[in-house]
Amino acid sequence: MKNFASMMKQAQEMQSKMAEMQENLQTIEVIGQSAAGMCQVTLNGKGEAKKIKIDPSLVTPDDAGVLEDLILAAFNDAKGKVEAEMKEKMSELTGGLALPEGFKLPF
Predict the structure, then answer these.
(1) Does any domain span residue 13?
(2) Is residue 5 part of a domain?
(3) Fewer CB within 10 Å, N- or C-terminus of the chain?
């Protein structure tokens, strides 16, 4: 029983740290870019778009499709960076414990 109580205490501590990390996600900002930085998308740690910056030279009526592709590329770049940041933070939180794919915390 002593081990079970210790394990439950550790689980509660981890849950508390997860809640704190979830709150901190709002403050993380990641910039994804395309076209050598001429098109940028800023996401927070929750993957919510916060800002889009487009160099005026990219805005031409004839090339709307190109601009759309650049925005998508910048967004996907930022999303990949957010996912990498989250993976790193989760690794720090779990002490390097490899959790199964799709495993969600808190419980």
Answers:
(1) no
(2) no
(3) N
Q: How confident is the model over 21-59, as pLDDT tens digits?
A: 777 778 889 999 999 999 999 999 888 899 999 999 999
d(CA 53, CA 71): 9
> How many domains is the chain partitioned into structurally?
1
Residue 46 belongs to what domain range? 27-93
Interior/surface letters 26-64, b for 16+ CB within 10 angstroms, e for the rest: eebebbbbbbeeebbbbbbbeeeeeeeebeeeeeeeeee
| Residue 80 falls inside a structural domain | yes
CATH number of the domain that residue 59 is part of: 3.30.1310.10
* pLDDT level of residue 101 (50, 70, 90 thresholds): low
Taking the C-alpha atoms of residue 74 and residue 32, their distance in angstroms, rounded to an integer, is 5
